[in-house]
Write a sequence for this structure.
């Protein structure tokens, strides 16, 4: 009897110790998921350290990018150039304050800035902070607002997994349809864009197919595969005139372990995305026809994040950034 009791006590003790170790490990690994120090004040300090040309209060709507790209393709070619090209290099879920992280030599952001690029804050969510957002600060609404130049009241994508309205076509489609460009390519790993039931761009894929438009929708298995597809696209002599690629390290790490400037893994994820971007830009510069091409290069994000999520109204979720090799005017 006594022995049985001893065994029982030992078993319970072992379970308790294991639970404590497990719980402790979990709390340690997830210590940035509920970062108390990720305050608005801290956020604004880091924003200031980046050196943005505008402020949170004067941030541009992310929908403006549509007009900037549209105008790029429709304006006259500069002297000595024979071809217009553009690329959006998207860092999904990349907060605007994380650009204060000192980057390495292989940084797309630093490379563009060293070449005189502009750097500005933008906002997602339909209205600027601190107003309550009118659409989710999420992936599908964000990218769709950039690609259509409209908010969700027009494009209809109020959240992920809602097929977009064809009342607002994407730049890929309108520019190709009007013959302003020959072709466009959309490269991503997330199935929610055009690869699953109720994915955002399914109506657009169908429309492009029905109208024989040269717009390719390329779903890749992971970021490495997306990056490989981008490099292959750029290396092609006759590459698409407009390329849209989304890299997701920041979104993945943010959802897993916390979107915060204090999370070293989130910083590392930004640097990983930025290294992909760097290689894409280097590949563009390596094109044989680069000297006669007029490239608009834009790096931006769809939304930020807070804790392990996004979608709501906080400043950390609302602000995005735009680095581009052109003045914002
Ligand atoms: Zn996203």
């Amino acid at each position: 009897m006594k022995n049985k009791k001893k065994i029982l006590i030992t078993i319970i003790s072992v379970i308790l110790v294991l639970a404590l170790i497990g719980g402790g490990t979990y709390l340690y690994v997830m210590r940035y998921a509920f970062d108390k120090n990720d305050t608005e004040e801290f956020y604004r300090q880091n924003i200031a350290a980046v050196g943005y040309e505008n402020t949170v209060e004067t941030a541009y709507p992310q929908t403006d990018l549509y007009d900037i790209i549209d105008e790029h393709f429709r304006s006259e070619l500069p002297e000595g150039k024979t071809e217009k090209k553009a690329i959006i290099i998207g860092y999904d879920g990349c907060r605007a304050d994380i650009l204060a992280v000192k980057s390495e030599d292989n940084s797309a952001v630093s490379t563009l800035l060293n070449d005189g690029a502009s750097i500005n804050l933008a906002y997602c969510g339909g209205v600027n902070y601190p107003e309550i957002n009118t659409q989710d600060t999420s992936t599908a609404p964000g990218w769709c607002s950039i690609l259509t130049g409209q908010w969700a009241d027009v494009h209809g994508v109020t959240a992920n997994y809602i097929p977009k309205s064809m009342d607002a076509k994407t730049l890929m489609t309108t520019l190709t349809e009007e013959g302003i460009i020959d072709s466009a390519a959309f490269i991503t790993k997330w199935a929610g864009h055009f690869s699953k039931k109720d994915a955002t761009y399914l109506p657009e894929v169908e429309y492009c197919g029905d109208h024989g438009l040269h717009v390719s929708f390329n779903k890749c298995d992971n970021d490495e595969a997306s990056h490989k597809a981008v490099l292959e696209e750029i290396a092609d002599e006759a590459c698409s005139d407009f390329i849209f690629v989304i890299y997701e390290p920041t979104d993945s790490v943010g959802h897993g372990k916390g979107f915060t400037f204090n999370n070293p893994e989130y910083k590392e994820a930004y640097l990983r995305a930025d290294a992909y971007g760097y290689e894409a830009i280097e590949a563009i510069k390596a094109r044989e026809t680069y000297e006669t091409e007029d490239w608009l290069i834009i790096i931006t994000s769809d939304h930020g994040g807070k804790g392990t999520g996004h979608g709501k109204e906080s400043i950390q979720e609302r602000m995005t950034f735009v680095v581009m090799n052109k003045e914002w005017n």
